[in-house]
């Protein structure tokens, strides 16, 4: 076992141990499940700190023989050898740290899940393995393998522990993402078939080095490359999601249990951004230019459409769901700019939105648990009953609207800066979305924290979530409890991270520099 | 070589083992008092199939050879596919051992040896080098299968299944025989190698194309692909579960063996109309492509509406036959390799699923998919195993199904120009298939249970489930295991005589 394998598969230990815990021992399950997410966190932070001190991440590369599809005599010895390969660079490291942090916080937040905790944690840990693996994979087959692990895990987490319409949400998730994955698989199959390798570095070599192109098993025309990139982008556009492929996202945001949404909005959507950067810009830079304009347009549509719909929602989860659509549009804008600032901005925005949405859904989970609803019309005046909670909620809203000094600002500013350099008119249109963001986030949060104080009895009538309703109804007799220490700690950590990235973006920029530079070289300056 | 008695009979060792076992079991069944259980007979039959598998594996390093005037060939292709057939047969016989008929007297005895005879037929198809032996062994497989379908003598569904099977099978056989008559008329030979050589000199492209299409339609019956797929759901539903498993796995594998042996051997080098360097097989590629596409679409779309587990798996098996046919239609260098890999994986995941369904049918007497509801609560391991087989059928990575499907995909796009449309159809139908496979998973894990808890899995079924689950997981996470075996066969370089 080497470092990266250990990092990716360490939650497996928790899965194995959990198998031996009795189903009814909720305390033990919560404790063990949370503890199981700590080893990858420690390892990820260790790698992050070491790389900051000049450690070369390539030294972590690992490879093992896995399968050789065929040894036909006319092929070279390395053709169709698919190996188990892990390897990271600054880009993957940033996402791995994000995943590890959010996974631990989501595990802590899972204390609000009351039913069948054992199964829940088993799948949550499987989801973490999948997410870590996606970012650590150094070849397409393993990338896909880990990606599908997240698909199955999410299907179970949403379908079994979600809200009232959980199965519908789970199917929506499965089918949309399944289609994206199927498309991705076809692209992967073409690349493997034509080049005989699935390794990212080798593929890059095969695609760009004229000498290596002589080793192609079957040629790939210029047009073929454009189709491949188009397929890749479409596959990840489903997973991002880009309007009009976003319907599934809304349902998952609303129906899935809040800790799962923390990971879904926080990490899973970012896999799409990662995929577009790594494979789109990384493998097909020349062809990417042709698509950049369209990507920027879709980005602006996402930003405006998401923001406008968020304005009209009266259910907090819906507001946040559409704001996710809007914020993922900023990622597309950064990519569409196709310059250094743009790509950096896309990554910043991914990380920033990951942290912010995790914070929002952590708080939404608490709110749903305490008040029995997240319907804005039924809530109000919480500032008095839950001052600490309201403070955090307001912080989340400020982060969401992109207040300078917080992470969201860095992501949006850098992305738009990139687009203003290349396509100022589009960027100006997209920037309107930022104004809307201020309106919808403040409006929603202020209605909840101030405004007319709500009647809890009335609030619970509108209850839709069978998961926590029983617990919440039982607590109805007592007064409203403010944020407790075990809930405030993860919230505080998230706020600290959001501010840290906002005040000192170099934290993220440092590991990214080398990667972005390589990509800019690929793009021809 | 001229004297039949001096032939190297040891080449047929696996066939002898299966034949001897079938006859011995038949005699024992006759001699045994009628009140004695026939269960050990099925175990014996499964052991015989396993023994034949070992014998086949032992012959892998041998050079390709043929006996009986080149009617019986033992090349890499025969060995490779016999391994799959025998594995499928042995696993299906484990299901037979635990079969509990709901009505009338148990007929375990004939169930076991009829299945062995059918298996023998399938093995002979794999080794045939001549139209005559090919046809006779195919009939041995078919006739034995008709009997297997009707074994529940007093159940009307079973009788209906047998009757439909006989009539459809009869029509298909007639069509195939008609096609063979054209080939014989054009060449005057029955040996596949002779036919292939003489066809190269014929100048009758249209006649040949007609013969090809007739043969293809005839074979599609065994494959359960469009246009001869309609029998499968009814027969699968009416037949006893172990027989259904046998049809879905061994019969289908035999069908693909037949497809390759018959059509590829004879037509790979036959001239086609128009451009001279093209072969008839390649010129027929569009037809096969369309059939493959239709099969995938019909199989996966109609499966969405099924409530009966057996019918659902019937349509799913049609869809899988479509994937396999797509691998055939690609006609890349990966063709036989990818079909072998897919059929191996298909055998494991299907028999595993059928074994669990057999248990549910045994216990509840119904095969409605409600029977799965909440299985996770009282039989978590069983539910996990079925979940694994379903994920594998859906082609999710981490299971064998993904590895096999990936290879078919690669085969589809490795040629220039690639079969992108077929690959797209395959990708989309795979996603459609998620709906019905995950629907069963929802039943297993999400729904509350409202039936009495199932009893323990009997020994035969649990052996089959464990073997299949291990195979599915092992190939999923360490595909090298299966590909190393495949590499032993040297890419079937000696396939063409």
UniProtKB/TrEMBL annotation, chain A:
Q: Where is the signal peptide?
A: none
Q: Which GO terms describe its molecular function?
A: oxidoreductase activity
Segments spanning the bilayer are: 6-22, 29-49, 93-113, 120-137, 143-161, 173-193, 227-249, 261-284, 290-312, 319-338, 350-368, 389-410, 425-446, 491-512
Domain NADH:quinone oxidoreductase/Mrp antiporter transmembrane span(s) in chain numbering: 137-427
Pfam families named among the record's database cross-references: Proton_antipo_M
Superkingdom of the source?
A: Bacteria
Subcellular location as annotated: Cell membrane; Membrane
Tell me its EC number(s), please: 1.6.5.-
Q: How does it sit in the membrane?
A: Multi-pass membrane protein
Q: Which UniProt keywords apply?
A: Membrane, Oxidoreductase, Transmembrane, Transmembrane helix
InterPro entries associated with the record: NADH_Q_OxRdtase_chainM/4, NADH_UbQ_OxRdtase, ND/Mrp_TM
Family, according to the entry, reads as follows: Belongs to the complex I subunit 4 family.
What is this protein called in UniProt?
NADH-quinone oxidoreductase subunit M
Native species of this protein? Geobacillus jurassicus
TrEMBL record, chain B:
- Membrane topology label: Multi-pass membrane protein
Transmembrane regions: 12-32, 41-60, 80-99, 111-128, 134-151, 163-185, 205-224, 245-270, 282-305, 312-333, 339-361, 381-414, 420-446, 458-478
Q: Which UniProt keywords apply?
A: Cell membrane, Membrane, NAD, Oxidoreductase, Quinone, Translocase, Transmembrane, Transmembrane helix, Transport
Location of the NADH:quinone oxidoreductase/Mrp antiporter transmembrane domain: 128-432
Assembly = NDH-1 is composed of 14 different subunits. Subunits NuoA, H, J, K, L, M, N constitute the membrane sector of the complex.
Regarding protein family, the annotation reads: Belongs to the complex I subunit 2 family.
Q: What does this protein do?
A: NDH-1 shuttles electrons from NADH, via FMN and iron-sulfur (Fe-S) centers, to quinones in the respiratory chain. The immediate electron acceptor for the enzyme in this species is believed to be a menaquinone. Couples the redox reaction to proton translocation (for every two electrons transferred, four hydrogen ions are translocated across the cytoplasmic membrane), and thus conserves the redox energy in a proton gradient.
Protein name per Swiss-Prot or TrEMBL: NADH-quinone oxidoreductase subunit N
What species is given as this protein's source?
Geobacillus jurassicus
Q: What is the lineage of its organism?
A: Bacteria, Bacillati, Bacillota, Bacilli, Bacillales
Gene that encodes the chain: nuoN
């Amino acid at each position: 076992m080497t470092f990266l394998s250990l990092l990716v598969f360490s939650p497996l230990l928790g899965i194995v141990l959990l198998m031996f815990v009795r189903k009814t021992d909720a305390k033990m399950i919560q404790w063990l499940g949370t503890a199981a997410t700590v080893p990858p966190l420690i390892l990820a932070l260790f790698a992050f700190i070491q790389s900051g001190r000049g450690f070369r991440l390539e030294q972590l590369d690992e490879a093992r023989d896995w399968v050789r599809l065929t040894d036909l005599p006319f092929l070279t010895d390395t053709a169709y050898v698919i190996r188990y390969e892990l390897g990271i660079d600054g880009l993957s490291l940033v996402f791995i740290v994000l995943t590890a942090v959010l996974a631990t916080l989501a595990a802590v937040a899972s204390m609000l899940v009351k039913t069948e905790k054992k199964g829940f944690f088993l799948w949550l840990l499987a989801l973490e393995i999948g997410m870590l693996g996606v970012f650590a994979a150094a070849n397409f087959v393993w990338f896909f393998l880990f990606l599908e692990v997240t698909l199955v895990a999410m299907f179970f987490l949403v379908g079994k522990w979600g809200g009232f319409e959980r199965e519908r949400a789970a199917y929506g998730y499965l089918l949309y993402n399944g289609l994206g994955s199927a498309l991705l698989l076809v692209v992967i199959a073409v690349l493997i078939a034509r080049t005989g390798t699935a390794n990212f570095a080798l593929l890059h070599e095969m695609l760009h080095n004229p000498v290596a192109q002589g080793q192609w098993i079957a040629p790939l025309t210029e047009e073929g490359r454009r189709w491949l990139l188009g397929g890749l982008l479409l596959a990840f556009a489903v997973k991002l999601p880009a309007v009009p492929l976003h319907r599934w996202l809304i349902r998952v945001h609303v129906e899935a249990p809040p800790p799962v949404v923390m990971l879904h909005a926080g990490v899973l959507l970012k896999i799409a951004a990662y995929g577009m950067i790594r494979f789109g810009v990384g493998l097909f830079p020349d062809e990417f230019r042709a698509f950049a304009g369209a990507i920027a347009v879709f980005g602006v549509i996402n930003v405006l459409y998401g923001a406008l719909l968020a304005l009209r929602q009266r259910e907090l989860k819906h507001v946040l769901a559409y704001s996710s659509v809007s914020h993922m549009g900023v990622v597309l804008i950064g990519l569409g700019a196709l310059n250094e600032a743009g790509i950096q901005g896309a990554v910043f925005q991914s990380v920033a939105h990951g942290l912010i949405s995790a914070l929002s859904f952590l708080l939404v989970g608490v709110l749903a648990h305490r008040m029995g609803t997240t319907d804005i019309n039924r809530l109000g005046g919480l500032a008095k009953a839950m001052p600490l909670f309201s403070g955090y909620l307001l912080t989340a809203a400020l982060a969401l609207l992109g207040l300078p000094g917080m992470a969201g600002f860095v992501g949006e500013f850098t992305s738009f800066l990139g687009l203003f350099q290349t396509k100022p008119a589009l960027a100006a249109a997209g920037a309107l979305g930022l104004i809307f963001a201020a309106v919808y986030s403040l409006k929603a949060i202020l209605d909840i924290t101030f405004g007319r104080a709500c009647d809890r009895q009335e609030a619970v009538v509108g209850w839709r979530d069978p998961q926590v309703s029983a617990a919440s109804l039982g607590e109805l007799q007592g007064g409203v409890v403010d944020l407790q220490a075990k809930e405030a700690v993860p919230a505080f950590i998230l706020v600290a991270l959001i501010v840290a990235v906002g005040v000192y973006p170099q934290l993220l920029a440092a590991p990214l520099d080398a990667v972005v530079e390589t990509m800019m070289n690929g793009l021809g300056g | 070589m001229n004297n039949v008695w001096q032939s190297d009979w040891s080449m047929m060792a696996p066939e002898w083992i299966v034949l001897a076992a079938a006859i011995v079991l038949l005699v024992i069944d006759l001699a045994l008092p009628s009140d004695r259980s026939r269960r050990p007979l099925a175990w014996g039959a499964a052991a015989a199939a396993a023994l034949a598998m070992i014998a086949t594996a032992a012959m892998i390093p041998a050079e390709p050879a043929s006996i009986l005037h080149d009617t019986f060939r033992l090349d890499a292709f025969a060995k490779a596919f016999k391994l799959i057939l025998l594995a499928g047969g042995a696993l299906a016989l484990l299901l037979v051992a635990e079969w509990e008929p709901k009505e009338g007297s148990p007929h375990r005895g004939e169930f076991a040896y009829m299945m062995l005879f059918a298996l023998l037929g399938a093995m002979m198809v794999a080794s045939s080098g001549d139209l005559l032996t090919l046809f006779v062994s195919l009939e041995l497989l078919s006739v034995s299968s008709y009997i297997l379908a009707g074994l529940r003598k007093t159940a009307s569904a079973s009788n209906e299944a047998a009757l439909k099977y006989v009539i459809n099978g009869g029509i298909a056989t007639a069509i195939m025989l008609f096609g063979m008559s054209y080939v014989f008329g054009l060449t005057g030979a029955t040996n596949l190698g002779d036919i292939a050589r003489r066809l190269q000199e014929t100048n009758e492209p249209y006649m040949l194309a007609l013969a090809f299409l007739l043969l293809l339609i005839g074979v599609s019956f065994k494959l359960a692909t469009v246009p001869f797929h309609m029998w499968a759901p009814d027969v699968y539903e009416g037949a006893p579960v172990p027989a259904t498993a046998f049809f879905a796995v061994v019969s289908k594998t035999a069908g693909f063996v037949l497809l390759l042996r018959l059509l590829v051997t004879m037509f790979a080098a036959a001239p086609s109309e128009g451009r001279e360097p093209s072969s008839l097989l390649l010129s027929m590629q569009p037809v096969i492509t369309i059939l493959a596409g239709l099969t995938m679409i019909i199989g996966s779309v109609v499966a969405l509406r099924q409530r009966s587990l057996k019918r659902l798996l019937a349509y799913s098996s049609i869809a899988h036959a479509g994937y396999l046919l797509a691998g055939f239609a690609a006609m890349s260098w990966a063709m036989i390799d990818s079909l072998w890999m897919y059929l191996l994986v298909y055998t494991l995941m299907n028999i595993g699923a059928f074994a669990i369904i057999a248990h549910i049918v045994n216990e509840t007497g119904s095969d409605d998919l409600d029977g799965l509801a909440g299985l996770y609560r009282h039989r978590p391991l069983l539910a996990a195993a079925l979940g694994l087989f379903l994920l594998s059928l859906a082609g999710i990575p981490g299971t064998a199904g993904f590895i096999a499907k990936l290879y078919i995909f690669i085969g589809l796009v490795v040629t220039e120009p690639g079969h992108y449309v077929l690959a797209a159809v395959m990708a989309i139908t795979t996603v459609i298939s998620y709906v019905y496979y995950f629907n069963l998973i929802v039943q297993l894990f999400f729904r509350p249970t409202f039936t009495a808890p199932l009893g323990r899995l009997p020994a035969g079924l649990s052996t089959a489930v464990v073997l299949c689950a291990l195979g599915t997981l092992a190939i999923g996470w360490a595909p090298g295991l299966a590909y190393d075996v495949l590499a032993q066969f040297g890419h079937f370089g000696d396939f063409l005589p």
